[in-house]
Amino acid sequence: DIIYVADCYGEPTPVEKAAYLAFTELQADLHAQGIEIALFSAYRTEADQQWVYDNYGHKEGWSETNKVLEPGLSEHHTGLMIEFVVWYNGGDEKADWEWYTVTAERAKDSYYQPIWRTLAKYGFIQRYPEGLEKFTGIPYEPYELRFVGSSEVAKEITDAGISLETYLDSKEVSSK
């Protein structure tokens, strides 16, 4: 059930409806904690993913820290993947506030910790967590959230410090 909502720039962006509703609850909770987040990107068609792959997949400086999957392999095709940005001024009272991509360095800043503590409450996990690249096949990308639909499942994955792949593999083994 894909719907169109405004992204951080006010442009219409497709996203799966249940994931977006949970994201808006996450936004409200973080807003109450003094943190503003916004949707940057979500659902992509294969043609959209091809454009991202062609324009960023091999771009010097970008492809060393991010991995762009080929069309057909990206979870963005599900609408359950949400890339987000944070309204932030880097802690400098004189700096202008602007939307920031959450980089690996910024993700460790204390400003961002409430985000990581709150995700599971709304059914989200960090899709590509730091240190789990051998399981996900993707470098650490703190700005990529995956809606798993259940706060209990999200909490289980987060608390265990495992990847979605590891969680799904454990459920497959236990069901046999």
Concise overview:
This protein is of the alpha+beta class and 176 residues long.
Keywords:
7 helices; two-stranded antiparallel sheet; 7 strands; 176 residues; alpha+beta; globular; five-stranded antiparallel β-sheet
Topology at a glance:
Blueprint (H helix, E strand, L loop, with lengths): L1 E5 L5 E5 H16 L3 E6 L4 H11 L24 E8 L9 E4 L2 H4 L5 H6 L5 E5 L4 H4 L4 E7 L3 H10 L3 H11 L2
Antiparallel strand pairs: 1-2, 3-4, 4-5, 4-7, 6-7
Structural summary, described in words:
The protein has 176 residues and is α+β, with helices and mostly antiparallel strands. The chain has seven helices and seven strands. The protein has helices spanning 17-32, 46-56, 104-107, 113-118, 133-136, 151-160, 164-174; strands spanning 2-6, 12-16, 36-41, 81-88, 98-101, 124-128, 141-147. The longest helix has 16 residues, at 17-32. The two termini are 31 Å apart.
As a percent range, the share of strand residues is 15-25%
Distance between the termini: 31 Å
Radius of gyration, rounded?
16 Å
Which overall shape is indicated by the principal axes computed on the Cα atoms? globular
Helix count? 7
Summarize the biggest pleated sheet: 5 strands, antiparallel
Instruction: Let me know the average pLDDT.
Output: 90
| Secondary-structure class | alpha+beta
The total of beta strands comes to: 7
SSE string, helix = H, strand = E?
Answer: EEHEHEEHHEHEHH
Instruction: List low-confidence stretches.
Output: none
Bin the helical content: 25-40%
